[in-house]
Design goal:
Layout (H helix, E strand, L loop, with lengths): L3 E5 L7 H13 L3 E7 L1 H10 L3 H10 L24 H11 L2 E2 L1 H8 L4 H6 L3 E8 L5 E6 L8 H8 L5 E2 L8 E3 L1 H4 L3 H5 L5 E5 L17 E5 L15 H18 L9 E2 L1 H11 L1 H14 L6 E2 L1 H30 L6 H4 L3 E3 L4 H10 L7 E3 L3
Parallel strand pairs: 1-2, 1-8, 2-4, 3-6, 8-9, 10-11
Antiparallel strand pairs: 4-5, 4-7, 12-13
Helix pairs in contact: 1-3, 1-10, 2-7, 11-12, 12-13, 12-15
Length: 374
């Protein structure tokens, strides 16, 4: 199989999704001749160029806030840097030291990046960063341009979070490369790479972002809903695992090893569902499942999926009844605390085929309007 160029977007902890995508691509026999990444995408790019999935997986399962930044006082929440619990500590640190000490990140990243292996791989690794030493200068830096022994410094320069200090090449000041182009497709295209895979993890694109597919073969892998990846600085282990799984599943779907509009099914299962219910009905069932919050990170068979959606649908009917009762009690001045819980309405009028199916599976349950807890 002819190798691809790989484009990796930035997005903090959401970068675990890209490692799941890489796992799927390795299983398919996909290889890379070039990789361009911004921010965490640059770090993942170096991990992928060195072609050691186990080490990359360990990197993501050992990552935590305290391995990236150092504070005089312990953070209340070490899994999510910008959790509200940490605001007081962060504010005091910034005022006292004019920034956040990110020196622990260098030791942590260096423990997983084998610079010699990256250089010997033959993969053209490109890093996007914004140099701030003299003015604001966007940089597209490839591995052959980086001095020996400084790869980790430049990777961290690309991933430099706002207010971070003690990070990047000595004597230089950099800003996160995502501010310039968070999905650096053109970095590879203008160097002649036109067979490309993009693994996108963020709605932030950067001031110079340009997704120009002209004269290119491009596979664009991204979650159906970016919110499924959680907050960028959330490093909870369960969240990391879910991101890896979603990346794996979305990549298999992108290459038609799985099918589905929003969820994931084996091809034969999905074709049977379309034949049984119609393509429009299956689409609407998946849309309703998404609105209801049915778990995405798994491969469903037909009965399991329909049952999961039906169960959540019925829960919403119960919540609707509770909401009506709560509103009535509110009129009497009772149970005011229930108001917030039941105020957000979700209309399902746009999905009549799905609603008709659920009602046929459970006669007597009908609704025009569904309710989701806030």
């Amino acid at each position: 199989m002819k190798p691809y160029g790989l484009v990796l977007a930035g997005g903090g902890g959401k970068g675990a999704y890209q490692i799941g995508a890489w796992k799927a691509m390795k299983e398919m026999g996909i290889t890379f001749e070039a990789v361009a990444g911004a921010s965490i995408g640059a770090i993942n790019g170096a991990l992928i160029a060195s072609d050691d999935y186990d080490k990359a997986n360990k990197f993501w399962h050992n990552i935590s806030v305290d391995k990236g930044v150092k504070f005089a006082k312990n953070l209340p929440d070490t899994e999510n840097l910008f959790s509200r619990k940490n605001w007081g500590v962060i504010f005091k640190e910034v005022i006292k030291n004019k920034g956040i000490d990110a020196s622990p990140a260098e030791e942590f990243v260096a423990g997983y990046i084998d610079e010699k292996k990256v250089r010997d791989s033959g993969v053209a690794l490109g890093i996007i960063a914004v140099q701030m030493t003299q003015g604001v200068v966007p940089r597209e830096i490839f591995i052959h341009e980086i001095p020996d022994g400084q790869l980790v410094d430049y990777l961290l320069a690309s991933a430099n979070i706002p207010l971070a200090t003690n990070i990047g090449p000595e004597g230089e000041k950099f800003l996160d490369g995502g501010a310039y182009d968070n999905t650096p497709l053109m970095t590879l295209k203008k160097r002649g790479y036109n067979r490309l895979i993009i693994v996108d993890i963020s709605n932030i694109k950067g001031v110079a972002h340009n997704l120009n597919y002209l004269n290119s073969e491009v596979v664009h892998i991204r979650p159906y809903d970016m919110d499924d990846l959680g907050a960028a600085f959330d490093f909870d282990e369960e969240v990391i695992d879910r991101r890896i799984k979603l990346g794996y599943l979305d990549t298999r779907k992108a290459f038609s090893y799985l099918l589905g509009n929003i969820f994931y099914f084996e091809p034969d299962t999905f074709r049977v569902m379309v034949k049984r219910y119609s393509a429009d009905t299956v689409l609407q069932i998946e849309q309703v499942a998404h609105i209801l919050g049915v778990e995405k990170a798994k491969i469903y068979d037909e009965n399991e999926f329909v049952s999961a959606v039906k169960a959540e649908y019925e829960k919403e009917l119960i919540l609707q009844k509770e909401r009506e009762e709560a509103l009535q009690q509110e009129k009497d001045g009772l149970m005011l605390h229930l108001k917030k819980r039941f105020m957000e309405k979700k209309s399902f009028d746009d999905y009549p085929l799905a609603v008709e199916l659920f009602e046929s599976l459970n006669p007597g349950l009908t609704t025009k309007e569904m309710v989701t807890p806030v």
